[in-house]
Amino acid sequence: MSKDLGALVVLAGWLGVFHTVVGPDHYIPFVMMAWARRWSAAKTAVITVLCGLGHIASSVVLGLAGVSLGLVLKKLDVVESFRGSIAAWLLIAFGLVYMVWGLRRAWRKRTHSHGHFHAGDDTHAHMHSHLAEHAHLHQSKAPVSIAPWALFVVFVFGPCEVLIPVLMYPAAEHSWFGVLAVTLVFGATTIATMVGMVLLSRAGVSFLPLSKAERFTHAIAGATILLCGLAIEFLGL
Q1: According to the model, what pLDDT value does residue 137 have?
Q2: Domains in the chain, number
């Protein structure tokens, strides 16, 4: 491995860690969905890894296509910026829809009493929630969640702006070993950092005194993801 390629590999590794840590969209959505939907640590890690792979693969394909078509870095930056905007708006839409669904669920899950009147002036009341009734009526159907797929789509559109410049140098030199080395190191450090941040944050959230807000977990998760998307689109995070 040449010194130039060695320096690129080291840079790719550092950028993989740095851009993940400073990008809240790389971990906050997974943390909130794992908390709201009570995913296990293993399921959370698997979903995070798959989304990370889609995130990186899409930028690698774009970078290699740009080199093949002779596109300059500035044009690729424009494309990546456009992709970033799409990803942010998809995250905003997902958070908004999930928040509304969570609020509707919380409303239906509220407990309330019904009075019953019987002969002889005998009355009594019982507490229940309509969500429990609905779950009982449909308990034979296995629940299907589209949340992991929605996150995957968002991350496929999500750009890796920092990878493109590092990737284009060995690609332009037709060093496919260099392209592979840079991609693998960047991908490994990005995904490892994502999983680490997600699992640590997930463990931290579990210790918060949120028992009183349990009915609103889905709404809170949706609102947090919505704010994350808005911050990325309008604050450039």
Answers
A1: 33
A2: 1
